[in-house]
Amino acid sequence: MKKLIEQILKFGFVGILAFFIDYGLMIFCTEVLGIYYLWSSLISFTVSVVFNYIMSVKWVFNVDNGKTQTQNLVFFITFSVIGLGLNQLLMWLGVDKIGINYMIVKLFATGVVMVFNYITRKWYFEK
Description:
Layout: H1 2-32, H2 37-60, H3 69-98, H4 102-125
Helix pairs in contact: 1-2, 1-4, 2-3, 3-4
């Protein structure tokens, strides 16, 4: 149980850092560079996924699942694309369909995708 709590804390710490990268870059791209919010969200999400992958395999998860680095990377990219799709869907629904500010919707979308990421990564990397 202690190891699980430590892992969740590490995942949370990495998640917070990835969130600041994602959220900050999205706002910068949208507000400063004038990029459409869905494109900004795509760019920022992609950058944060790269950071998250590196930290997840180096520090958070015990990646000794008998699979090659290529297999692990393919899994990570596949589920990150699913997470991106979920993020973009929630952003679009919240902003375009419900009318909530994109910065607020991003907070909710990040929380949903973070839970999805933890469950799928723990299942894959440590099964």
